């Protein structure tokens, strides 16, 4: 996909594993992931200050998530055209300045526009930061590198409600954004020191039509899925989702025939990368539904208060972090295929067991089940994050990275939407009974079945898939 660099070139990239660089990129990811959901607990306070209905504040969250999703496709071209180091530093600057603007917002319009600017910065930080790390990491160290990059996505969802709630309660909602300013300044200074200068092509053309079709398609899907998550019967939302899929199909058709396409779609010819858009997408979708379904089940189905439900859900994330040091050794010991099969199948089992929970189930037993569910979640996330790049050659890396980041965003949005759809389906049909917990039983069983599709996809991988990265010997 890349062409020969022009005269406007930075120095060549180093090819050595840099833990401090990976940690810096992971920290910026954490900021981006955290700001995607941290506003939830501050909605009543913001609504009161702006004299608007709490439901109206949701537009600030949607605007941020949609901007991130739509901006990712362009980030790949920006990194190749202007240099990954330059764009990564720019992304941190935009995110930090936008955070300050969010903090000083005086009305909903200003806050929403500032959140859009924040999303633009986040859209560049995520894929370009990953690209910076992966380009300088040899295949033998890829597992270690991705281990650094995965933790923000595991930790941010559990910290967001607690951090947002604490800042809003003891200070004010403005501090949710003010805290990003010193963190952003520190990240910018560190980026100038740690991010290597890389080659870039100052004459690289942009596939404008491919970009238009891709961004419209991604944006429509995210908006449609977000709407479906709240209004399952919304016909307009379904039409928006269909329109998004058609736009993405058009983008694929165009990029297959374009002379200089936005993305090099040949990456899908690599089976280990293709796993991220098949079984990996289903895996992330089902996993993303859990933080949505569990708190609702505990509050609506069990009658728990929000604090008790939140503490119990934290067990999932305790499992995420607790197993993290063991994920790399597990992959090196058994290889990608067995680990992916185990993680997805074990996750399906935990989902099925969640369907049998009720208000009389001993709380330590619920906590233990969610702890194991979180551990299996972490193992699968780490394995997919590493195996997708195992057989990607350097020229394909920018496209593979941007496509993967886009799919992650879509899977997160789809997880909530599909979870909500299943709840409404089983609430209406009463297949699993008419009591308050019946819809949740149906939703968790449906998610378990979906997860088994990921298991089947992993079973179709070659037994030595990603062996160069896992470091394991060829298995007979």
Proportion of residues in helical segments = over 70%
Number of beta-strand segments: 0
Low-pLDDT segments: 1-14
Gross geometry: globular
How much is the radius of gyration in Å? Answer: 22 Å
**Total individual domains:** 2
Pfam families: MFS_1
Membrane topology: Multi-pass membrane protein
Transmembrane segments: 21-47, 59-80, 87-110, 116-134, 146-167, 173-196, 208-229, 235-255, 281-298, 310-327, 339-359, 365-387, 407-426, 438-456
InterPro entries: MFS (IPR011701), MFS_dom (IPR020846), MFS_trans_sf (IPR036259)
What does this structure look like?
The protein is globular. The longest helix is centred in the last third of the chain and has 33 residues, at 397-429. It folds into 2 domains: 18-197, MFS general substrate transporter like domains (Growth Hormone, Chain: A), CATH 1.20.1250.20; 263-467, Up-down Bundle (Growth Hormone, Chain: A). It has 476 residues and is mainly α. The protein has helices at residues 19-37, 43-50, 58-82, 84-103, 108-135, 142-170, 175-178, 180-194, 208-230, 235-257, 271-274, 279-301, 306-334, 336-354, 363-387, 397-429, 438-459, 467-470. Mean pLDDT is 80; it is low at 1-14. The two termini are 35 Å apart.
Question: What attributes characterize this protein structure?
Answer:
globular, mainly alpha, Growth Hormone, Chain: A, 2 domains, single chain, 476 residues
Task: Describe the protein's topology.
Blueprint lengths: L18 H19 L5 H8 L7 H25 L1 H20 L4 H28 L6 H29 L4 H4 L1 H15 L13 H23 L4 H23 L13 H4 L4 H23 L4 H29 L1 H19 L8 H25 L9 H33 L8 H22 L7 H4 L6
């Amino acid at each position: 996909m890349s062409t020969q660099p022009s005269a406007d070139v930075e120095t060549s990239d180093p090819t050595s594993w840099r833990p401090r660089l990976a940690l810096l990129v992971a920290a910026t990811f954490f900021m981006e992931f955290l700001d995607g959901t941290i506003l939830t607990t501050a909605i009543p306070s913001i609504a009161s200050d702006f004299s608007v209905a709490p439901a109206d504040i949701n537009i600030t969250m949607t605007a941020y998530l949609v901007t991130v999703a739509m901006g990712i496709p362009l980030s790949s071209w920006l990194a190749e055209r202007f240099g990954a180091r330059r764009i990564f530093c720019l992304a941190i600057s935009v995110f930090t300045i936008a955070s300050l603007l969010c903090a000083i917002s005086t009305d909903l319009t200003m806050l929403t526009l500032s959140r859009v600017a924040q999303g633009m910065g986040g859209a560049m930080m995520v894929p370009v930061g990953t690209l910076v790390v992966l380009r300088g990491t040899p295949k033998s160290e890829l597992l270690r590198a991705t281990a650094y990059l995965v933790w923000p996505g595991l930790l941010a969802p559990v910290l967001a409600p607690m951090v947002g709630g604490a800042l809003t309660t003891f200070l004010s909602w403005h501090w949710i954004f003010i805290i990003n300013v010193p963190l952003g300044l520190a990240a910018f200074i560190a980026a100038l020191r740690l991010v290597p200068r890389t080659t870039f092509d100052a004459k690289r053309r942009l596939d404008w039509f491919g970009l238009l079709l891709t961004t419209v398609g991604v944006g429509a899907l995210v908006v449609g899925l977000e709407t479906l998550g709240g209004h399952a019967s919304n016909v307009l939302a379904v039409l928006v989702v269909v329109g998004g899929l058609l736009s993405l199909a058009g983008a694929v058709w165009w990029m297959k025939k374009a002379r200089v396409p936005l993305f090099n779609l040949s990456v899908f010819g690599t089976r280990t990368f293709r796993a991220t858009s098949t079984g990996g997408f289903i895996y992330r979708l089902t996993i993303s539904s859990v933080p949505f379904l569990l708190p609702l089940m505990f509050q609506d189905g069990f009658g728990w208060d929000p604090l008790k439900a939140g503490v119990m859900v934290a067990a999932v994330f305790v499992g995420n972090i607790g197993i993290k040091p063991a994920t790399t050794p597990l992959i090196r010991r058994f290889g990608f295929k067995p680990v992916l099969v185990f993680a997805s199948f074990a996750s399906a089992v935990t989902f099925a067991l969640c369907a049998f929970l009720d208000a009389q189930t001993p709380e330590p037993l619920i906590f233990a089940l969610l702890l194991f569910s979180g551990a299996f979640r972490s193992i699968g996330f780490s394995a997919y994050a590493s195996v997708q790049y195992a057989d990607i050659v350097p020229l394909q890396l920018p496209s593979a990275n941007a496509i993967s980041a886009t799919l992650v965003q879509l899977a997160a949005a789809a997880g909530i939407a599909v979870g909500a759809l299943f709840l409404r389906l089983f609430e209406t049909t009463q297949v699993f009974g008419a009591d308050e917990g019946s819809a949740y039983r149906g939703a968790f069983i449906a998610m378990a079945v979906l997860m088994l599709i990921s298991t089947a996809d992993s079973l179709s991988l070659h037994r030595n898939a990603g062996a160069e990265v896992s470091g394991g010997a060829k298995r007979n």
